[in-house]
Structures are given as structure tokens and as C-alpha cells.
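Let's practice the habit of predicting before peeking. Look at the sequence and jot down your guess about where helices and strands might fall. Then scroll down.
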Amino acid sequence: MPNGAEPPEFSNWQEAWEWHAQQTSDQFVALSADELLAHIAAGNYDGYYTIWYRLREKATLEQAAPVLLDVLRREAGDAYSLVRYHCAAALFYLMGYADDKPPPLRIRVQWDHDGEPARQEAIDELEQQLVH
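Done guessing? Here is the structure:
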């Protein structure tokens, strides 16, 4: 178990999820931004998506953008939709956007509703914004 803690008894799935997510998140507290980015670059995402929130607390846009753009480019298909969602949320957060008001470009980058080629074009557009 993370942190050597034994899981308590849970009355429902949400309690279990939240407990395990907190344990996972607590492990990331000790890691630097570079260590978190190394995990992300290697595709070692946690099943509770907490790595993205810890990264937001520790990384700068300049540090994180290359790795997060790479993740957005490579993680295609339905199996990675939540990874893309959280990755895009972290990147746009570091760019100064609030989570509750995502810009249209974020929506195009994270979802492939208009097809994968259109999503990749949106990532190109995002990359150009980051360069300027």
C-alpha cells in the first residue's frame, strides 16, 4: 500500500476511490516537477489522474509544455481520452486558463470529436501559440 497505510473499510466505491487517490497523490508530493514530467513522458500515469494536479503545483509552463504536447500528440483513441483531458487541463492551467472556462482550443486538443487529424491540427495551433 502507498505510504504503508492499510486501506480502511469503505461503504461505497467513491470513498474507496478518494482514499486511494489521496494515497497516490501523497506519493507525488515528494517528487520534483522534473520527476513528475519523467513519469508522464514515460506514460506512467496514475489511474486516479492525480499526477496532473501535482504537476500543476510544481511545474512552470516552460518546463511542462514540451512533455505535455508530446502526450497530447501520441495518446490517440478512446482509451486515452481521460489522459488527454487531464493533460490538456494541466497545460491550459499553466497557460493561465481556469478549469471552469476552457477555451475552445482546449476542447479541440483534448477530444477527437472531429477526427484525429483535426485534433492534431489543433495541437499544431496550440504549439504555435506557445512558441509566441
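How did you do? Residues 32-131 form one domain.
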